[in-house]
Amino acid sequence: MKPILQTSDLSIAFGGLKAVDSISLSAVPHEITTLIGPNGAGKTTLFNLISGALKPNSGKVYLDGKDVTRFGPAQLQQVGLARSFQITNLFFEMTVRENLRLAAQILEPVSHAFRPLRRTGRAAQKVDELIERFELQGKMHEQVGYLSHGEQRRLEIAMCLACEPKVLMLDEPTQGMSHADTDETEELIRSLTDTVSILLIEHDIGIVMSVSDHVIVMHQGQKIADGSPAEVRANPAVQAAYFGHG
Amino acid sequence: MHDRLDISMRANHVLFAVLMGVGLICVALAVAMDDMFYLRLGTEALILGGLALSVDILLGFGGLLSLGQALYFGIGAYVSALVLREVPSFWLAMGTATTASLIAGILGGLIANRVRGVYFALITFGMAQVVAKVVYNTRELGASDGLIGVPVLEIPLGIVTVSAGNPAGFFMLTLAVVIALYAAVAYMFTTPFGRVVIALKANEKRVPFLGYNTWAPRMVCYVVAAVVAGIAGALYPMLRGFVSPELMFFASSGNAVIMVVLGGVGTLIGALYGAVLLTFLKSIVGSYTEHHLIAIGVVFIGAILFMPKGVVGVVKPWLERRLTQSETSSASSGDRTSGENS
């Protein structure tokens, strides 16, 4: 199947440190591709390169076959790539619905920018749909700053979906969540693949093994393994990186 | 059920209506008692309120502290005065002053929007000082004396003609302009565009990841603020009959910031409350002592310590609760919401 997202030899160095060292990967439509690796392996840096937050020293990023290496975050968003953040990054003083509304209004044409906010139309519909899907009905008029951590993390995902992306990049979506919330989120992520392809960073090996279609292992900026969850688990290089012998 | 931001804007409108109501009662009293002084002072307060409104667009919504907003007020005032001395036409003066401040706003915005925070404050301050000094030293613009001899205007408004020399008439005209400015700006911040501006102030780093350009909304905000200041400035020579370089100096810009802080940052209407309070306070205290700036300073410090959200901030939370309650109780829309109260 033709990959929806592809990188070829993507690299960036900070001073002498090669944070991401010629990483090539591809994500297949409607699948979950998971990046794992020990702390400092370069996973979030790779995310920043793909999502336009950082510009690579070399290498290319392709979205749906199109070269998007030099695109900024806003441009990437408009061509269908959305990302969440490891540390919750929302508009804390605004309510849940205001946050979602802000994210969803990108669906409407720029010529609507100076029209009154509509109660109907694509953006409003999207907001209602997301509130329902993420079970935020009871919280929609609450300021995001007052939500629980788990709710904020879920809203973080909902915000990314508001623009109807092709590729969704989730940076540790279950970080800091309770067990119950984690299970729910896992369920949710899996249910998203009917509309988007997912690139995931995850530390919880249990989730990685159960949710991923494809796993990529990074260590010290390099890709050391690439395959199905079972293949990766059996890979000696991966075991060495995680357990530190060799 | 409306969003909090909409409720907040409606609370501003209520406070706006209150101010207008009180204002009109005062005008009626002044006319009845044949007062000239307070009517003209009130008109000046409204004009300066326009400048303060412009500061609040940037400070309260854009999150940008401008210390040179008087630049655009001054450009509006000078252009208006120059036009009026040649052709005494209200509409021509307003039109050219608007255009001039629009162009100046675009130029200034291109420079100032390259930076944020303290640097933005310093650049806006610098730009205003440079232009003010140029005007101060240009003989054709009256140099340090300013431009005098702006004729008393007859302003045809369709069915009636208002004379700028008629205090009550010109007050009402100024009021109408300020209402229009307030309404336009308030509307702008309730549109999708306005939401992006508000989001930029709250969390600038996240906005591009929602697909929005961050430069353009700021630029539009800056230019709108410049035009608002310019339009307010255009009224100034009609009221006073002259303009002087002091209009562009830091004292004017600084006063406008004080007005906004005193009235309540980010409320739009606070700018007008602040302008009225500060203008009248100055005049009243000034009639007892020439050291009125000391009193103003004390009031300002007190306001910051005890009313950090300004005069408007004292009643606004209560007003918002009332508006939310009245809406929840009369809610017949299909929204499902648990009865929250914030």
Strand adjacency order, main sheet of chain B: 1-2
**Overall pLDDT metric of chain B:** 90
Secondary structure tally, helices of chain A? 9
Indicate the multimeric state. heterodimer
- Please give the CATH architecture of one domain in chain A: 3-Layer(aba) Sandwich
Global morphology of chain A: globular
Characterise this structure.
The complex is a heterodimer of chains A (246) and B (342). Chain A contains nine helices and ten strands. By secondary structure, chain A is an alpha/beta fold. Chain A has a domain at 5-92 and 163-243: Rossmann fold, CATH 3.40.50. The longest helix of chain A has 14 residues, at 179-192. The two termini of chain A are 36 Å apart. Chain B has a single domain, classed as ABC transporter involved in vitamin B12 uptake, BtuC, CATH 1.10.3470. The longest helix of chain B is centred in the N-terminal third of the chain and has 29 residues, at 4-32. In chain B, α2 (37-62) crosses α9, α2 (37-62) crosses α10 and α10 packs antiparallel against α12. In chain B, 48% of the residues are buried. The radius of gyration of chain B is 20 Å and the shape is globular. A two-stranded antiparallel sheet of chain B has the order 1-2. Chain B is mainly α and 342 residues long. Chain A binds chain B through residues 51-53, 72-74, 77-78, 82-83, 85, 89-95, 97-98, 101-103, 105-106, 108, 112-117, 123, 137-138, 140-143, 159, 162-163, and chain B through 1, 3-6, 187-188, 190-193, 195-196, 198-199, 202-203, 205-206, 208-214, 336-338, 340, 342.
Structure at a glance:
The complex is a heterodimer of chains A (246) and B (342). The model of chain A has no long low-confidence stretch (mean pLDDT 90).
Keywords:
A: 246 residues; Rossmann fold; four-stranded antiparallel β-sheet; 9 helices; 10 strands; B: 342 residues; mainly alpha; ABC transporter involved in vitamin B12 uptake, BtuC; 12 helices; 70% helix; globular
